[in-house]
Amino acid sequence: MKFYLAPMEGITGHIYRRHFHELYKGVDKYFTPFIATNQTFKLKNREKREIDPKINEGMYVVPQLLTNNAQQFIWYAREIKKLGYNEINLNVGCPSGTVVSKHKGAGMLLDLEQFDSFLDQIYTELSEKLTISVKTRLGIENFDDLDRITEIYNKYPLNELIVHPRTRKDFYKNSPDFNAFRNVCEKANMDIGYNGDIKTSDDIIKIINDYNDYNVNSIMIGRGILTNPLMLENYYENKPHNNIDCDRLKEFVSRLFADYVSDYTACSDAINRMKELWFYILEPFDNCKEIHKEMKKIKKAKDKEVYESAINNLFEILREIEK
Ligand SMILES: Cc1cc2nc3c(=O)[nH]c(=O)nc-3n(C[C@H](O)[C@H](O)[C@H](O)COP(=O)(O)O)c2cc1C
Which domain holds residue 52? Predict the structure, then answer.
């Protein structure tokens, strides 16, 4: 089984990926947060940095595109290929209202004929040796179109279909629908990846065991790794999933913060970026009053000193818990 770090806009950018890769093991592929194509046919500086081969050196990085325009997909894909990437991922999952209303992300599933013709155009015109994987939801309001969606994917030589078995309507609520996932596994003719709510080694083992008879070759993990970056090592080394290794975590968040501070003009932006990550890291400690208190301080922090003092206190508490 291969493990992928899910693309997460605003969190798993190049800084997160680099430090994660230097400090933690277990991820085979890293997906960039989506790059939205546009008619200027120009990569923004921020996007260029995200896929700069030097910045991503030593990691298998897959740039992800968000678009419903075949010509734009083709232009961006060629630019990305020129940089040395051999795989591109198409986002057919983003549930955000502004994205879906433009028939992008999960919104591509609103008009399946149009979606089919989009895939047809990119596969007809992109003659370069470039593999395309898709990260997809399985419907808009319900799973009624599931068979048709799978049929469409089956028409094209996709490298891999990474399935997040929720509808657009679900956003990230409700549980992933395993009947819908099994249905895709039964009918799809390509490699399949699973994504959604994998938080512990037991969740991983369940996917491996339950879909042993199908082409499920990868598991993509987002929030589980944000919560505990040690998650895959815990799985490989048979350690409890709440093993966090405070020293390494402290090193990780310190490096991230230092790089965000130098990346942003305002320190408060770097703090905001960290707050988002702390929300996930501290989720398992929701019932711990002392942690709540420090979390509140982090939420209010506007300058480096206040933020760092709260972090130091947090690690003292986490170390006590670790004992
Ligand atoms: C804050 C946030 C940002 C996300 N950004 C992206 C993105 O850029 N591209 C994408 O395909 N999915 C994105 N996702 C979805 C995740 O990649 C993943 O499919 C989702 O979190 C479910 O997996 P998980 O339960 O392992 O986290 C995002 C999710 C969240 C919560």
Answer: 2-236
Q: Does residue 63 carry a pLDDT above 90?
A: yes
- Mutate-to-test residue for ligand 1 from 16, 172, 281, highest number of ligand atoms within 8 A of CB: 172
Q: What angle do CA 121, 94, 109 make, to 5 degrees?
A: 50
Neighbours of 303 (CB within 10 A): 10
The CATH number of the domain holding residue 71 is: 3.20.20.70
Residue 97 has pLDDT above 90, yes or no: yes
Task: Provide the pLDDT for residue 128.
Answer: 76
Indicate which residue's Cα is closest to atom 2 of ligand 1.
8
**Residue 288 known to be catalytic:** no
- Pocket mutation for ligand 1, best pick of 5, 9, 14 (most atoms within 8 Å of C-beta): 9
Whether residue 17 is contained in a domain is answered as yes
Per-residue pLDDT tens for 270-284?
999 999 999 999 999
| In a shared domain, residues 35 and 154 | yes
Tell me what ipTM this predicted complex has: 0.99
Same domain, 219 and 257: no
| Integer Cα distance of 323 and 316 in angstroms | 11
Same domain, 159 and 262: no
Alpha helices in 193-245 (DSSP H): 201-210, 223-227, 231-236
